[in-house]
Structures are given as C-alpha cells and as structure tokens.
Design brief:
The chain is mainly α and 51 residues long. The chain has one domain. The protein is 78% helix and 0% strand. Helix 1 packs across helix 2. The protein is elongated. The termini are far apart. Keywords: Membrane, Transmembrane, Transmembrane helix.
Length: 51
C-alpha cells in the first residue's frame, strides 16, 4: 500500500460499501468522504491542543 492509497483509504472503503467504483466518476464521493473524515479528525486534534 502506497502513501496515497493510505490517505484515500476512508473514501475508498465508503465507495466500496456503497457499491460504486472509487476510481470512476464516483471519485467525487470518495473526495467528499475523505474531506469530511480529515476535517473532523483535524478539528478534534485542534480542540485537544487548544483545550
């Protein structure tokens, strides 16, 4: 597994669960899932650091 595959893993698994091809046109779904996943993760880290 490459580093880029590791970063895209949450969105790829979500697309597989939905039954769509993450490499095709549904790549936007993968992008959205990855964006939301890493947004929440970063906000939690920032909240822990600030609190």
């Amino acid at each position: 597994m490459t580093l880029s595959e590791a970063f895209l893993w949450p969105g790829t698994k979500a697309c597989e669960r939905l039954g769509v091809d993450p490499e095709g046109e549904a790549g936007l779904i993968r992008w959205m899932v990855n964006t939301l996943f890493y947004l929440v993760l970063c906000l939690i880290v920032v909240w822990i650091i600030v609190a």
